[in-house]
Specification:
alpha+beta, Fructose-1,6-Bisphosphatase, Chain A, domain 1, 2 domains, 8-stranded mixed beta sheet, D-Maltodextrin-Binding Protein, domain 2, 5-stranded mixed beta sheet
């Protein structure tokens, strides 16, 4: 019997799991009368579907890879040489409020390196998938980051969590807007990164993001030819870090502007 251990095998399994749980998300979302939410903190939404989806992802992945571990946004977990990092619903505020812009994000970290990234947006039926050395695709078509070369022509995603100091965030926005960039923020860090990987936007900067929000997107962007900061430095996997992602033509300039160094 074949052992499912290669990155390609794991990528295929992650894609299948993402599609399955994405359909569960969609069913729950469309049943609007049953979508109740509460808050874990200021503007930090939680629905019953978050926990339901994460448990299903854990069950599927650990059923196939019993020696692996899972680190999830809702139930935590353990880190090992083979760790799946899961955000069951990225964009929970959108999901809870009836805005059809959310996803499941599944990453695989092999010996401390993000090596597989899968993001599925069920409402648009878009599957973003990639693995280290295997490229990145959206619904099977190869992705490539944008060719933009100047900040004045760029569109970037900028998000903010309530845990971030407002003064620092506003100062960063002032720098970005003064440089002539257009900004957007649609409530999902994972989909924002997928947008960078697919060339729909030119970059992203956020002063703090957790690993379950961004590791899948990091894999996609690097495989699509983009530049990143070293998100995994220090305790990035467990505690998060700033995140910077950009098309190569604006990466150095954006890095200098926001003060976040790029990974060499």
């Amino acid at each position: 019997m074949k052992t499912l251990s290669s990155l390609e095998d794991r990528l295929l399994i992650a894609c299948a799991v993402a599609r399955e749980v994405g359909l569960l998300q969609k069913r729950r979302f469309l049943d609007r009368d049953k979508v109740a939410f509460k808050f874990k903190g200021p503007q930090d939404y939680l629905t019953a579907t978050d926990g339901e989806v994460e448990k299903l992802v854990r069950r599927r992945l650990l059923g196939i890879f019993p020696g692996d571990t899972v680190l999830g946004e809702e139930d935590g977990g353990q880190v090992s040489d083979c760790t799946w990092v899961v955000d069951p619903i990225d964009g929970t505020s959108n999901f809870a409020r009836g805005i059809p812009y959310f996803c499941v994000s599944i990453a695989f970290v092999l010996r401390g390196e993000a090596s597989i990234g899968v993001i599925y947006q069920p409402m648009s039926d878009e599957l973003f998938a990639g693995a280290k050395g295997l490229g990145a695709t959206v619904n099977g078509e190869p992705m490539q980051v944008a060719k933009t070369t100047t900040l004045e022509q760029s569109l970037i995603e900028v998000g903010r969590a309530s845990r971030q100091p407002q003064a620092g965030y506003l100062a960063m926005l002032e720098k970005v807007m003064s440089a002539g960039m257009m900004i957007r923020g649609a409530g999902s860090g994972a989909l924002a990164l997928a947008n960078v990987a697919s060339g729909r936007v030119d970059g992203l900067f956020e002063m703090h993001m957790y690993s379950w929000d961004c590791l899948a997107g990091i894999v996609l962007i690097e495989e699509a030819g983009g530049r990143m900061n070293d998100f995994m430095r220090g305790e990035g996997l467990l505690k998060g870090n700033p995140i910077l992602a950009a098309a190569p033509g604006i990466a150095e300039a954006l890095s200098a502007l926001v003060g976040e160094p790029l990974k060499s």
